[in-house]
Amino acid sequence: MRQTIIHISDLHFHTYPQNFQDCGSKRILGMANLLFRRARQYPLQRAKMLVGQIQNMKWDHLVISGDLTQLSLEAEFALARETLGPLLKDRKRVTIIPGNHDRYVRQNKAKDYYKQHFGEFFGEEEIHVKKLNSDWVIVGWDSAHPNDLFTASGTVRRSTIQATENLLGNLPEKTRFIIVNHYPLTFPVGWKVDHSHELYNLVPVREWMMRYPNIRLYLHGHIHRNWQHRLLRESSPELLLLNSASSTSRIYSGQKSSFHQIDLVGDKVKVTPILLE
């Protein structure tokens, strides 16, 4: 049976802090970025256009691979929840994981605004698991954590890998898996990689994933350039990696895609790039 997934990422809903207490730490840098660049790059109308376009599409599951917000402020999460509301009516059809901007600063558990506003779309376990049908399962990871002032890296915990291994071992051998994580595992040819803005354990995570041929798709964001990459495995299916960031930003010259539609039929995967104009 066909399953259609809509994959969006890095929506960056934004507001400015309303009190001095929320202005400290790394948010000072984020506010400057917002004031001089990102506020113009991410007008709210673009997000509303995205919601309207997805509402008019036929799909079975929505995946958002992190960075709902810019400064991880409660008002930003509330704005994101309100704007995305029409797409979130059935939580069984939605997977949402956090990105580094959603864990922008260190906060106590009482101020985990991602969990308060979107936790129901991940769950309480180490990994998020959603069975699409008898053939395909989505696995969501939370690799985001606060960093120092000029770092935006993440870490896939050992407990996350172990929980995923356990899941792979407990389901039928024919099951195919889609991993959702915020950070990329590959970069375009010639891309200037910034190691302070990637997974700390990128290489071992990528090598681990390549050992499991039933992991067929890796959905992510973080770098604001849509792409489709393929990693070949010896005598087994390739790993397809899709970047849907950023789905709500203004269009840049030559841009061909804002997000992706993924159609699954049996073991076949069809990816359609979609531009939000």
Describe the structure in your own words.
The relative contact order is 0.18. The protein has a single domain, classed as Purple Acid Phosphatase, chain A, domain 2 (4-Layer Sandwich). It has 277 residues and is of the alpha/beta class. It is built from 6 helices and 11 strands. Helix content is 24%, strand content 23%. It starts with a strand and ends with a strand. The strands form 2 sheets. Strands 4-5-6-7-9-8 form a 6-stranded mixed beta sheet, with no helix packed on it. The chain has a 5-stranded mixed beta sheet with strand order 3-2-1-10-11, with no helix packed on it.
What topology emerges from the helices and strands here?
Blueprint: E1 3-8, H1 27-41, H2 44-55, E2 61-65, H3 74-84, E3 94-97, H4 113-118, E4 128-131, E5 136-140, H5 158-170, E6 176-180, H6 202-210, E7 215-220, E8 227-233, E9 236-243, E10 259-265, E11 268-274
Parallel strand pairs: 1-2, 2-3, 5-6, 6-7, 7-9
Antiparallel strand pairs: 1-10, 4-5, 8-9, 10-11
Short description:
By secondary structure, the chain is of the alpha/beta class. It is built from 6 helices and 11 strands.
Comma- or semicolon-separated keywords:
single chain, 277 residues, alpha/beta, Purple Acid Phosphatase, chain A, domain 2, 6-stranded mixed β-sheet, 5-stranded mixed β-sheet
Unreliable sequence segments: none
Amount of beta strand: 15-25%
Counting helices, strands and paired strands, the structural category is: alpha/beta
Distance between the termini: 31 Å
Helix content: 10-25%
The CATH architecture would be 4-Layer Sandwich
* Shape category: globular
